[in-house]
Predict the 3D structure of the following.
Amino acid sequence: MGHHTNLLSYRRRLFQPSPAGDRKLISIYHSRPLFSVNSNLFCLIDESMWGIIRQNVGVTGGLSSQGLGNHMMRLRPVASAMRSYSSATKEMTVRDALNSALDEEMAADPNVFVMGEEVGEYQGAYKITKGLLDKYGPERVVDTPITEAGFAGIGVGAAYHGLRPVIEFMTFNFSMQAIDHVINSAAKSNYMSAGQINVPIVFRGPNGPAAGVGAQHSQCYGAWYGSVPGLKVLVPYSSEDARGLLKAAIRDPDPVVFLENELLYGESFPVSAEALDSSFCLPIGKAKIEREGKDITITAFSKMVGYALKAAEILEKDGINAEVINLRSIRPLDRATINASVRKTNRLVTVEEGFPQHGIGAEICASVVEDSFGYLDAPVERIAGADVPTPYAANLERMAFPQIEDIVRAAKRACYRSVPMSATA
Amino acid sequence: MFGSINHTSSVTNSLFSRQFLHPPLQDHAGIKPFFGGRRSHTATSFSNDVDQLPTEAPLQQELNFPGGKVKFMPKRIFTSGSNEERTNCYRVLNENGELIVDSDSLKISKELGVKMYKDMVTLQVMDTIFYEAQRQGRVSFYLTTIGEEAINIASAAALDNNDFVFPQYREPGVLLWRGFTLQEFANQLFGNKYDYGKGRQMPIHYGSKKHNYVTVSSTVATQIPQAVGAAYSMKMQKQDSCTITYFGDGGSSTGDFHAGLNFSAVMEVPVIFFCRNNGWAISTPISDQFRSDGIVVRGKAYGVPSIRVDGNDALAIYSAVYEARKMAIEKQTPVLIEALTYRAGHHSTSDDSTKYRPVDEIEWWRDDQNPVKWFKTWIENKGWWSDQAESEQRSSVRKQLSQAIQAAERVEKPPVADMFNDVYDVPPKNLNEQEVILRENIKKHAQEYPSNVAV
């Protein structure tokens, strides 16, 4: 085991039954989870369990249900992972997911084109549009001068006339230069023209904080755009989200604001064969329950979904079974899923990186109070970024944004475990 | 980064290609100077032997910079920021209604000329009567085009119906030319159920998909980059048409104007920028708006061919727009037209311009520089019009207008359903729920809701 040099070989050892049956492989679960959805499941495997699985699960991956009850049910995904690895489970970074989605939509519809700063020759400021210029030419991958107001307006005009632009903002902080066009020229046009002008445009780019980029590059715009009627606002987390939601956004006849996250671009997630198909599409306005639970609901979007899942793992050890909802869509907000979950768990923690006042959590809380007040057993807890312009210094930045421990503490407060209000470390 | 947007070879374009990154072909004695004109020698060629000295290379007289060769000059000469000599103004009809000698005005047929004049009169009468309707409290707001009738009608006459129009708000004449009826105008003003805008917008925010006239949007100059984008779409779809966008002297100060013109030249799209320089942006005179020689000189700054035209001369406008359209489509280039004119009316019904400008100035422009009067003289001299035709036209339009207003006033307002649709392509669930709740409420408390709105 000491000879393994990378995670891939760990995985190979984990899934291929070896004659020696090395049970020390169990320690694998301490490293970065292989599956974002089911990562918590690996914690549940102990050495004896692994041995049982090895005996019962053959190469074909069948599962026996002999006397293992609940544990076996939870471990089933492990077996299916073994099964799918035998046909090579595909992992994809969010960056590649976005790139492939753009590529496929551009191939399918000649009216789709990409426009923004550095999207062409530079292959994209974050390489999301890599390879597209070579494939589709400069008419469909347009490098622009530095004027967000300009190219947003031009994109809207092109959409008025029937093209389907995908406008990239280098970060949504720069979209403030163009926000009049996003809202007054795009979002409201269909209504103001009484259906005569529709604007099938997508505005996409990284949103929220990255790492050490300071106040003017770290703001989250989910709440601002989420309040505008006429816009749809999407917030992918995993690669599957990225692919399915971007494709849905490009195909949608309404203007869509597509908020990505710079730090997620490089993260890998498994993608199903269905998600890799070029016709794959996720419905807009539907949240995803990433982890089912019964004690407390945690809503999150974008990078915070990963943090919420990790918090849920920690809470599990303290006997709190958390349900994590990946919003996927800020507008329309999937109030039905959130409320159904709260009616089940009776407690709610909302998580976001944006500023606390007038944030997404405030809207979710209001929604739950309106629809499911009687079901709440505790006040709703909002976790948000600190009410300050983002500081640059790494230690200060860390304190300005929610960390996993903050989510854990909030969940415990909602469960009436006595926990101090603020971080002590 | 000097990547080229369009790979088709044209003289200007190749100069912007990435060849810039490669040094010039000639090199002087082994070293390739890029900037500057100093001679240089390589160490290897340096020698004490006089016969071995390298031959003098000719000094650089100019710089091979992207966009074209740039000559050097050894004296400090600043180009002046002020206007020593202003750009000439294209005019073919004088104030006596006579064609100026040597003018290259395009010939127009009697049919076209008469239609142009009739529409100018209709526009004038429409403005007067709708303005009065606002003063009588029947319409909440109105904005006249007085003094700019030639701009409206003549520019529209030179276009094709497939050309997309991106107006500011002082161009209802373009819509009128294309066939929008007086009743349709009145319906929008009253926001009744026949309004194509479903009562959602303030008066004068006309829009008509079938006439290729993009709905008026209150935000100033946002239509400029939009027009460029639509022109880009036409170019991509290889259509034989262009877009035209109108804006005022005030609109030319916005960031959108800069971005739109700059982009249009880089993208090489068929768009006509029509600036109505009418001297005033509400109460801001052009001397407070900019210090350049109007807007026409800015075209050069962006690489956009431009012309200044007399905005009260319908024939000049017609000829200029006709040629601009031809240029835009055949050469796939933007064109800038600045029309000098005067906003003879107030900015809108919310404005009283006598408060900030002299009454005699208004009167001079409105009466002596009247574009409708000049054109009338011209077509009368051609024998295409008469006083009788004039009074018939004016009274006919007045009658139609008063009928249209009375009819529009009586029509019901748009139904409640029109409050909730068109927000998105497909109405979302939350709005459907709200509509149901509202209807129930209206049923329960009918006396609290207006009676002229259908449920």
